[in-house]
Design a protein that fits this description.
208 residues, mainly beta
């Protein structure tokens, strides 16, 4: 049943084309090694035959482009976004590439399922660093941990845990650092706290 105009060019199949039960399928075939595209435009005449005026596109590329699955931004957008671009693509090896910023209102996880409260959770079982932050720009910075919005000065900005799950290194947002014990104010000006007999300074350079 069609309520309006319908236009077909032979290669359209909608429905259970695979013969599998309880499955609805829309399939796009190119009859050869060529891209298969699904385009979203606003052509009022219904006669457009190219990518001109397309706003978004979904494309399964051919073998010459690595059989990638890509989402396109078309040229139909207003300036300065009226050029073709690929904001997202997936390769057959499941590597995914994002060309823009990633914004989530919930939680993100890498190598594990999202935590119920932690906003970013990263898990690795490889014998290597789990994460790395680089900045090669002159006068650039590395990692910033901002707990300035906390009402309490005893908020922990950084904690390092051992194999037993015990945190042996703390940095609080009031500048106090602690090695090997839970931080507490032992003196009004204390900024570094260590267990008894826990500090040794040795210089092995001859003549120093």
């Amino acid at each position: 049943t069609f309520a309006g105009d319908a236009r077909f060019n032979e290669r359209v199949r909608i429905g259970d084309v695979t013969g599998l039960s309880n499955r609805g399928t829309v399939r796009i075939d190119t009859r050869g090694d060529a891209p298969a595209d699904l385009l979203f435009g606003r052509d009022t005449a219904g006669t457009a035959t190219s990518w001109n005026g397309v706003y978004w596109g979904i494309s399964s590329r051919h073998s010459g482009q690595g059989d990638k699955f890509q989402i396109y931004r078309g040229s139909g957008h207003s300036s300065p976004y009226n050029s073709e671009a690929i904001p997202f693509q997936i390769e057959p090896n499941l590597n995914a590439t994002f060309a823009g910023n990633i914004h989530t209102l919930s939680r993100a996880a890498f190598g594990t399922t999202p935590h119920s409260t932690i906003k970013l959770d990263v898990l690795s079982t490889a014998a290597d660093w789990t994460a790395r932050i680089k900045n090669y720009t002159n006068s650039g910075y590395g990692l910033a941990v901002d707990c300035s919005g906390a009402a309490s000065s005893t908020t922990y900005a950084l904690a390092v845990y051992d194999a037993a799950g015990t945190a042996n290194f703390f940095v609080r947002n009031d500048g106090i650092a602690s090695l090997g014990l839970t931080p507490y104010a032992t003196a009004a000006n204390a900024k570094l706290q260590l267990p008894s007999h826990a500090l040794a300074i040795k210089n092995n350079v001859s003549g120093s």
